[in-house]
Amino acid sequence: MEGREITDSTYPGASQEAVERTLRFALEIVSDGIWDWNICTDHVKRSPGWYSMLGYAVDGLSENVATWHEVIHPDDFERVMRGFQAYLDGTQPLYAEEYRCRCRNGDYLWVSDHGRFVEFDEEGWATRMIGAHRNIHERKLAELALQQKNQELLELNRTLEDLVAARTEALQQANRALAEQAALALRLSETDPLTQVANRRRFERQVQAEWHRLQRHGHPCALLMFDLDHFKRINDRLGHPAGDRVLVAVAEAVRQDLREVDCFARWGGEEFVVLLPDTDAAAALSLAERLRLTLRRIDAALPMLLTASFSVGAMCPGEDPVALIRRLDDALYLAKQQRDCVVVC
């Protein structure tokens, strides 16, 4: 190994003994204990300060490497040996470790340990190593306490983050549940409970939307209204439950012929209305005729033929929805006088 032997030539005019004494004095000034390892004999000489630092009597321990191994804390031993061997092998430029040493009373003291080769044989192999221990116990305890506190803060932060995430997820779930409940409440408030088609409130809202769309963009829109003929006879002869079954069957049959964009609503009693976006009067008339024939074929276990009267009208620019509904209603009145027919208004 490369290095430089400390001899009297290092300090001109000084003997080897004087040089070593000066070196020891210097080490004792900057450290709490020094050690001197003769690698060839495995003899380790330790300073009085080293023994005093750990509470042992001077020269009270065997002067060899085994003593050092015995005082190192078991939890630190492997790490220290790896660092020491790396220096011996030349893979690390210096030996410097921090670890705990066992004191005479059984307690452990944190020390820093630094060492280096100081003598070599003719082939360059190290024959002597000198090092110094320094008491870092208070500083190390403070450092470890700070690390522990930082770890606790990190764990607390993670706990808080998890709590915030959990609360956020819970809040999101609650908001989703509220949104679903609100949507359900809105659907229920705008749905006819018997036939499950739109009610008058929803239909009027949809008519307003289509009326504004017509005014802005000119998209055509038509409406058809129909009323079941002689429906009072069904209720009077067969009872209201039978009448309800007829209304449900009518709603199901009509819904089969409509698009998703169409708004089909129960206007009141046995009267229904359909909003047909992007549909002109001719297409609405064709649909009304088809529905009129569909209703005649409904099998509702009735002793008489089921028929309906229809009115059809197109939405006109400048005409408000109230006037349009009134026009449809007047045309339906005329259709009811003839029964089972379609009147265009």
Protein model, in words:
The longest helix is centred in the middle third of the chain and has 53 residues. With 345 residues, the protein is of the alpha+beta class. Helix 7 packs across helix 8. Helix content is 51%, strand content 21%. The protein folds into three domains: 120 residues, Beta-Lactamase (2-Layer Sandwich), CATH 3.30.450.20; 51 residues; 145 residues, Reverse transcriptase/Diguanylate cyclase domain (Alpha-Beta Plaits), CATH 3.30.70. The N and C termini lie far apart (112 Å). A five-stranded antiparallel beta sheet has the order 2-1-5-4-3, with helices on both faces. Strands 7-8-6-9-10 form a five-stranded mixed beta sheet, sandwiched between helices. The chain is built from ten helices and ten strands. One of its GO terms (cellular component) is plasma membrane. This is diguanylate cyclase. Its EC number is 2.7.7.65. Keywords: Coiled coil. It holds the Pfam family GGDEF.
The SSE string, one letter per element, is: HEEHHHEEEHHEHHEEHEHE
CATH class of the largest domain: Alpha Beta
Q: Could you tell me the radius of gyration in angstroms? A: 50 Å
* Largest sheet composition: 5 strands, antiparallel
Coiled coil: 139-180
Domain PAC: 95-148
Main location: membrane
Catalytic activity: 2 GTP = 3',3'-c-di-GMP + 2 diphosphate
Label this structure with key terms:
rod-shaped; disordered N terminus; alpha+beta; Alpha-Beta Plaits; Beta-Lactamase; single chain; five-stranded mixed sheet; 345 residues; five-stranded antiparallel sheet
